[in-house]
Structures are given as structure tokens and as C-alpha cells.
Write a structure and sequence with these properties.
Layout: H1 5-11, E1 20-24, H2 31-44, E2 52-56, H3 68-79, E3 86-91, H4 99-109, E4 112-118, H5 126-132, E5 136-140, H6 146-153, H7 159-168, H8 179-202, H9 207-219, E6 224-225, H10 227-238, H11 244-256, E7 260-267, E8 272-282, H12 286-291, H13 299-313, E9 317-323, E10 326-334, E11 337-343, H14 350-361, E12 369-373, E13 385-388, H15 389-394
Parallel strand pairs: 1-4, 1-5, 2-3, 3-4, 7-9, 11-12, 12-13
Antiparallel strand pairs: 6-8, 7-8, 9-10, 10-11
Helix pairs in contact: 3-4, 4-5, 10-11
């Protein structure tokens, strides 16, 4: 059993804290499993199991709860006659209308500790944040890291295992399946999220265009593009007209469903965010294998995707850097630390070495600079450190 210590270390200190604990992330990344780990921790502390109330909105028992009034009725019956503090777990709450109003009231009406999961990155925005302002702590959960994948397999780091992870991603249900089953599972999960969390939720009519756009993003992981560029591509290559507004909306829907993450660009010299030409990364790169071109054929970009989410897991804030006419893959900040990172498959030729090292020479500050690659030999030079990707993924302190 993988304890997912990265997240438990955040949650355990907050048990019995007044804050509502909110865990967000793509479906099947392990949020329900986390609730099980929290339940185990509570029972170890002496909490009676009947004082732990789990309402899973994907369950047949609760799937007909569609608004907060119905939720109130269920909660009231569940806590009735309970002695002592109750622990309320709400799993996949995003489809209950006005849920945030009820959740806020439970803290007033009951002696309770509340844990919520949701598969919508927009779960705590807008009106929701207004009702819960200052009352919640959000924990963003991602599919398994490479180290968690190794822990699950109970095996040591190896190139063979890394290429399995690179190809099929970090969704835990795939780990015990064969290659054909992995693709089928990823395909089925994609369709479930696509139709349930996007098409149905936003009442999309032109499903074909949305699906084409999704495949385009998966095919272009780590590439810089804008809605206008995508619109021009579809018009030129497929004779399909899509407005910039529609593309912008569809990208936002994919982001809300935790399929993709948008990364903004910044001018490194001016320290300001640029308002155009972002990059998108896929929350689990296994979807790229299932729905787009193969990950091995696109290995450099998939490596970049893996590194991006690893920095997020380690609590770095990440943007893309622009310095003069050059791009820096990642500008990472945490507290008062800043680092610059390039990701490439191999530093195998003078042209590749020149391409990857040159942007750093244009940056005048003295923050650490790293090139992460699959090279077995250290090609560090001029104060720029070359780090092996597998070492980075399995050594939390190597870049931290």
C-alpha cells in the first residue's frame, strides 16, 4: 500500500482543525483512496468508525443528491444521535448545486471535521470561494509520481520501469494491467471524464470539434500556442472554422476537468507575465499515449510534462521563461527561491548543447540553472548543472 506521504503530511496536521479540507484532482488519481487513509488515521486516534460519515456522490446510494437541500437532509439523518465529534467525508461533491452553502453551515450546526474531494480545478473559485473564504485548505492531488509508481511496484529505479511510467502515466489503476488493458482503461476513463465532466456539464453540442481540440493539445504538450493559432490551424489543415472564443472556452473546460494545466509565460528580464502564447501540459501523460501520438515518439515533450508536474508536487510555482529571443522551459519559485530549468532528452550533439545552454547565458541574475536530461554522464558547465531525470524524480532533495 502506498501511503502517499506527500499529501498525508499536509493533511495530518489539519485533523480536527477548524479548516475544511478540500482535495482536488482529476478523477481516479487517488482522492477516494486518500479519504480511506485519513479514515485509518482517525481510527488510530480512537475515533469510532460510526462517527466517520462518508457520502460518495458517485455511489448509487447518493447519486440522486443534486442540490444542497437534499444534502442537508442526508447529513442531518446521518449525524442524528451521534455522540462526540463527527467526521464528514464528501467524495466528488462538484455536481451538487450550492454545496458550498451547506458545507459552511455544518461547521456552525454540528461538532464536525469536514473533508471534501472534487474533480474540478474550478471548485473553489468565484461564488464558492466567497462562501468558504478563510475556512478551507486546498490540497491539489496529482496522479502518482514516478517515485510513488516505484513504491507501488515495490521495485527499485530502472530504465525499464521508467519507460513503462513514461508511456502509460501515473494513474494507479493502470499499474497492474497489461499493455492492451492499460490503453483500454485510459480510453474508457478519458471518455468518462470527457462526457461527464465536460460535454454534459457545459452542454457541448459540437462534440467532434471539442474532441479534435483535445487531441491537438495532447499532441502538442509543451508547445507554445494560442487560440488564434489553433483557429488558423483548423481552418488551413481541416477547413474547419472555430472562433477564438470557442477555443478559449473549450480549453478552459478541459482545464476545469483537470485534464490539462495552463502555464503562463513571463519575461525573465522584466519579471512580468505575458498575456499570450501559453503552454499546456496533460495532468496524466498516459492520455497522450492513448489518444494522441505515442509517448516514446514524443519523448522530449513527455519528459517536460513529467518534470512540470513533479515541480508542482514539490510545491513550486511554475511559469515559462522568455529572455530576449529565447525560451526557458521553466521558471520555478518557492518562498524566496528561484531556479531556471531546461528539459531535453539527451545532450548528444553540439547543436543540442548549444540550444539548451544558450538561453541561460542571457539571464543576468545568479539564481541556480539546471538542465534535466536522460544523460548518464554529467555535462554540467559554466555554473549550469546537468541533472539526470531519473535521479531528479527519485531524489526529492536534488532540486528543492
Amino acid at each position: 500500500m502506498v501511503k502517499r506521504d506527500l499529501y498525508m503530511k499536509q493533511i495530518v496536521p489539519l485533523i480536527d482543525n477548524e479548516l475544511i479540507k478540500v482535495i482536488t484532482g482529476i478523477r481516479r488519481c487517488g482522492k477516494s483512496y486518500m479519504l480511506g487513509l485519513i479514515k485509518e488515521e482517525l481510527i488510530k486516534r480512537g475515533v469510532k468508525s460510526h462517527n466517520i460519515i462518508l457520502i460518495n456522490f458517485d455511489s448509487k446510494k447518493y447519486k440522486n443528491i443534486i442540490n444542497n437541500n437534499q444534502l442537508d437532509n442526508v447529513v442531518e439523518k446521518s449525524v442524528k444521535n451521534k455522540k462526540g465529534k463527527v467526521y464528514l467525508f464528501f467524495d466528488e461533491i462538484q455536481n451538487v448545486k450550492k454545496w458550498e452553502r451547506s458545507i459552511a453551515s455544518y461547521k456552525i450546526d454540528y461538532d464536525c471535521d469536514i473533508y471534501i474531494t472534487g474533480s474540478n480545478s474550478n471548485l473553489l473559485s468565484g461564488e464558492l470561494a466567497t462562501h468558504l473564504t478563510g475556512r478551507y485548505y486546498e490540497i491539489k492531488m496529482y496522479p502518482f509520481s514516478y517515485q510513488e509508481f516505484l513504491d507501488f511496484k515495490e521495485k527499485s529505479n530502472s530504465l525499464e520501469l521508467f519507460y513503462e511510467y513514461l508511456q502509460y502515466g501515473g494513474l494507479p489503476q493502470t499499474f497492474l494491467l497489461d499493455e492492451h488493458q492499460k490503453i483500454n482503461y485510459l480510453d474508457d476513463l478519458f471518455n468518462s471524464i470527457f462526457y461527464k465532466d465536460i460535454v454534459k456539464r457545459y452542454q457541448i453540442r459540437d462534440i467532434d470539434i471539442l474532441e479534435r481540440l483535445t487531441t491537438f493539445v495532447f499532441d502538442n504538450v509543451g508547445n507554445i500556442f494560442s487560440p488564434s493559432r489553433i483557429s488558423e490551424y483548423y481552418k488551413k489543415e481541416m477547413n474547419i472554422k472555430i472562433s477564438n472564443k470557442t477555443i478559449t472556452n473549450y480549453l478552459k473546460y478541459l482545464e476545469n476537468a483537470c485534464f490539462i494545466a495552463k502555464v503562463k509565460r513571463e519575461d525573465v528580464e522584466g519579471k512580468k507575465i505575458l498575456k499570450f502564447n501559453e503552454k499546456y501540459y496533460v495532468t496524466d501523460h498516459g492520455f497522450c499515449e492513448a489518444k494522441a501520438k505515442g509517448n516514446i515518439d514524443n519523448i522530449g515533450r513527455v519528459m517536460e510534462n513529467i518534470v512540470y508536474f513533479e515541480f508542482l508536487r514539490r510545491d513550486w510555482k511554475v511559469t515559462i521563461g522568455k529572455t530576449h529571443d529565447y525560451e526557458v522551459d521553466f521558471v520555478c519559485r518557492k518562498h524566496k527561491q528561484s531556479i531556471y530549468v531546461q528539459v531535453t532528452y539527451l545532450l548528444e550533439s553540439p547543436n543540442t548543447i548549444e540550444r539548451e545552454f544558450r538561453p541561460f547565458t542571457k539571464i543576468k541574475d545568479n539564481y541556480p540553472k539546471y538542465i534535466i536530461s536522460m544523460d548518464q554522464f554529467d555535462r554540467s558547465r559554466d555554473g549550469i548543472k546537468n541533472v539526470n531525470l531519473l535521479d531528479f524524480l527519485t531524489d526529492y532533495d536534488l532540486i528543492n
